Amino acid sequence: MVKVAVLKFPGTNCDEDVHHVLKNVFFVDSQIVWYKNFSLNGWDAIIIPGGFSYGDWLRAGAIAARTSAIEELINARDIGVPVLGICNGFQILVEAGLLPGALLPNESGRFVCRWVRTYVERPRGPWLSLTTEGYEIHMPVAHGEGRYYIDEENYQNILLKSPLIRYAKGDNPNGSVYDIAGVASEDGLILGLMPHPERSSEDLLPPRGFRPGGRIIFESLVYSLKRGW
Amino acid sequence: MTFIHRVEIIITNKKGVKDPEGETIHKHLILRKGYNVVHNVRTGKYLLLTVSASSEEEAVNIVKEMCEKLRIYNPVVHDIEVRIRG
Amino acid sequence: MTFIHRVEIIITNKKGVKDPEGETIHKHLILRKGYNVVHNVRTGKYLLLTVSASSEEEAVNIVKEMCEKLRIYNPVVHDIEVRIRG
Amino acid sequence: MPLSLEEVEEIRRILGREPTEEELAMFEAQWSEHCSYKSSKLLLKLLPSEGRHVVVGPGRDAPAVKVFKDWVVVFKIESHNHPSAVDPYNGAATGIGGIVRDILSLGAKPIALLDMLYLGNPRNPHANWLIRGIVRGISDYGNRIGIPTVAGDTWFDNAFNSQPLVNVACIGIAKPDKVVLTTPEPGDLIIIMGNSTGRDGLLGSSFASKPLAEDVDRDIGAVQVGDPLTEKLLIDVIQILIEKGVVKYIKDLGGGGLTTAVCETAADHNLGAVIYLEKLHTRQSLTPLELLVSESQERMLLVVNPENIESVARVLDEYDVMYSVIGFFTDDGIIKVFYNGVKVAEVPAKELAKPRPLRRASTPPLEVLKGLKPLYNLPPEPNYEESIVKVLTSLNIVSKRWIYEQYDHEVGIRTVVKPGYGDAAVLRLLDGSRRGIAVKGDANPRYTYLDPFNGAANAVAECFRNLVAVGSKPIAIVDELNAGNPEKPEHFWYFEMMVKGIAWIAEELKLPVVGGKVSFYNEDHRGKQVKPTATIVGIGRVDDITKAMTMDFKENGSYIAIVGVTYPELGGSEYLFRIFGLEEGEIPRPRPSSELRNGKFVYKAISLGYVNAVHDISIGGLATALIEMAVKGKIGFEVDIAKVFARGIQRLDEILFSETQARYILEVKGEYLEDLLKLADRLGVKVSIIGRTRDRNSVVFTKNSTVLVNLDLSYLSDIYDKTLEEEIEGGV
Ligand SMILES: Nc1ncnc2c1ncn2[C@@H]1O[C@H](COP(=O)(O)OP(=O)(O)O)[C@@H](O)[C@H]1O
Ligand SMILES: [Mg+2]
């Protein structure tokens, strides 16, 4: 039986949502793990959900990234455990250096909660295995610090060789460079994204004009854990 | 004759007014990582302005007046400091 | 023998990294109110630490080291300055 | 507000001696208007608070209503008007913190927030600064604690330029057997958990019980900074403690701080208490007096049987929540307070908790005549197209996206009908069933200013309609009465009339008023009261969330029906104000029996699947409501206003813009038109079919076959969407 850890820090607030979706929508065994009790062993995948770890203070994700839980998580890459960071989870992965770039305050200076259209490039790895090039995913964003930044050189050399999720034209809610909504390690094992797939996994939730596209990410995981990726 | 001056503004919560951000950084980051020589952390906002004025003093005065008029800070909660950046 | 020192940290965006908050304050608040002598605004974060150390230099060095180790700033996007508060 | 001479005399009588300094401070805090309701208590008794759903009525920190047999909804409203006027960011933020802790006090899980904001003119620099600060404060705090802000109400008016009204509400859910918890008993331990106590917020509730001082800086003690991270931890640990069943009773520390929390808990259960102040965890060194009345945020009182103290401690340690065991309850009804071995206060709990109510004088002021006179000599009717555009772009009508997009309204994955899509928000229970609840907050400051009795009644009616329009059955409401200075008879009159108006219509609509809050002294430093405002928050039951209704037109060619009769009621309307600058005239009459009848009809039509979209008609009238449905659905329409069922109409603007109550617009599916009309007949409801949706980029109003209005839908969408942002971001 597949087992997924949902890692919770002080201030994490999407842990129950992710847990609900894993358990009740995809029937995956999962557990919310308090950061103090986290260790890497025994999990088939790890999700760092959204929220405001440590109040988003200093910078979103900055304090959580220095905890022993995350220091241990850095080894996930070596042992091949899939890691997904959603929203604050993405910010933590970036602050921990597990993913490149930085996430800065939104261009508008304001928090933004809104549904957006995104699409996938170069899908690879366990989180995107069921998607194809250009696959469209609708999800809501809800963040104050989601403006992705990376310099031109690293964009060319790293990001363009890795799986990527971009906001559709006109849907960039925060001023991210190159419309970037999510980035991954080259093999796709580690994925971070600002939009919330767990809020887009059930038919009831998308407003008119949007589809529950976030499902594909969890479906991909379930599929990949059984069949490989 | 005017010159270009760099004026910095530092806005912090008043003494006695709580600073949860500073407390969190102190407790959950700095102390946890063993930097016990740090006793206290206060946070604030920093602004750096480039201003034309005939003297440093004048530049500081313009900025001070502006901070009051435009409510760059809230005197009820914040302390403000305006100074020339060395 | 150690003394208490006040060390300030100023974190600003690197040149080349956009600072929309600074731009907004400049354009929508300061210029609109007629403060044309202000040419540019950059924003940043300010931290004030109380530190025990044998000298000012040592205090600054401890804090500098800490900023690197704990990633108080993000070198990808930020410049940092550590100094004794006068 | 310092104690009056009579009150000090009363305290001497209670104690039989001179009070100590600490005792005086305790009485001052507890007897403040904010904590004791001394001016309002007698009138609030008029509100009907009973009903078969009501589990806990007024009295506890929040009421509880049994909406389903296995779910209780706990909800409450609160104002943070005074703190928000001097420190908009922290004032609004701590308002959210406070209302959430009220919900936690009943052991419920908070699942939604609402914010009802009555704000100044964004073009006024001070008001603009307040608006940004207030919204950011709610956003930063609400988002961080992980509770979605799903609905609200917003009004802009010069009257609120220096004293805005910031009303917030929180909705929680709980299992019926967990919600009331148990009764504290002698020997039970008193734990204070959460933030350390500091000097911040000293006597904040007495600050809220007096007018805005000109020199606000003197009130520095009242400035409180919100700490959402600690609040989030409190929310998390309380769920765990309840789950484990190790706490008997919970109370928040709000206005009046430790004093209020301890004395009200004791008084409500015929207990006394012994408190050791030096045990309280603090942020700085404080005097016993300060410890007693500090209003530091994010603190809760737990009552724990000594047997369970270790398991409680283990949870709090695990989650990094600070706490201290500061004393225990006794059976003698006396609160004894010690500080380092010295007794600093000894007060009977009941007398401290409940001062004698005051009977305040009330006289109608002269200016109310403006709202009690019928309108005569209306100016001639201007161009309809221009009027429609002007009314639609009124800040009270345009999309509030600039506000609600700053709030995470999705966290918790319960929000099925989101802000901007329906008349109310709909949340699912997320228990595997299809059940849910609807919530909405409403007020109309102009109505209550012109006619507080009918204005307050209309706020209840609008809330009722908004709940019905999304397909829910209204169950209960709470109210927040924002009024002037109760010591001034001409201000108090408004308060009295608002209470009576709510009491009357709530009885008529069979909607119990299960709780509420009063905010007095809403006046500027010149003593002018802001528009007195009655804010209503209601909850409704949704049996099937898959049928929850939204207001956007869904398809081409369906029928547009108006439910209810339109009367010439332009008094106090948005139209009159926007087009002619007039704030006068008799406001629309509350029509409770039509509300009930029409509400039942709409509810039925939704559950039978006859309709695609529903929207109630409120400010801006029929024309505005229709255009809102078109804008949201990106589908145009053509209607003939000669077909609107109306009485006593003399001019067309009365049909377009009248704000007559008890009306709705339905988008009716073609195949169900006959059924719908039959249903209307059976229920005795007046329905007029006035036209059809058109998949064209235009909205067209005709009278018989003359075209009165033909406007471009994309243009209307654009101004509806962008006006507020432009006013706020670019208006200064
Ligand atoms: N301050 C606010 N915060 C959150 N949502 C708001 C706020 N003001 C208005 N809204 C939302 O905007 C939409 C329109 O609100 P409103 O104009 O009050 O509707 P109605 O006229 O039906 O009462 C609703 O979804 C409402 O919840
Ligand atoms: Mg409505």
Walkthrough of the structure:
The complex is a heterotetramer, with one copy of chain A (229 residues), two copies of chain B (86 residues) and one copy of chain D (732 residues). Chain A is built from six helices and eleven strands. Chain A is an alpha/beta fold. The mean pLDDT of chain A is 96. Chain B has a single domain (3-84), classed as Mth169, Chain: A, CATH 3.30.1280.10. Chain B has two helices and three strands, in the order E-H-E-H-E. Chain B has a three-stranded antiparallel beta sheet. Chain D has two domains: 5-353, PurM-like C-terminal domain (Phosphoribosyl-aminoimidazole Synthetase, Chain A, domain 2); 364-398 and 551-732, Phosphoribosyl-aminoimidazole Synthetase, Chain A, domain 2. In chain D, helix 19 runs parallel beside helix 20 and helix 23 packs across helix 26. Classes of the chains: A alpha/beta (229), B alpha+beta (86), D alpha+beta (732). At the A-D interface, helix 1 and strand 6 of A face helix 7 and helix 10 of D. The complex binds adenosine-5'-diphosphate and magnesium ion. Adenosine-5'-diphosphate binds at residues 115, 117, 149, 151-154, 400, 403-404, 419-420, 423, 442, 466, 618 of chain D.
Short key terms for the protein model shown above:
heterotetramer, B: 86 residues, alpha+beta, Mth169, Chain: A, three-stranded antiparallel sheet, 30% helix, elongated, D: 732 residues, Phosphoribosyl-aminoimidazole Synthetase, Chain A, domain 2, 2 domains, seven-stranded mixed sheet, 26 strands, binds adenosine-5'-diphosphate, binds magnesium ion
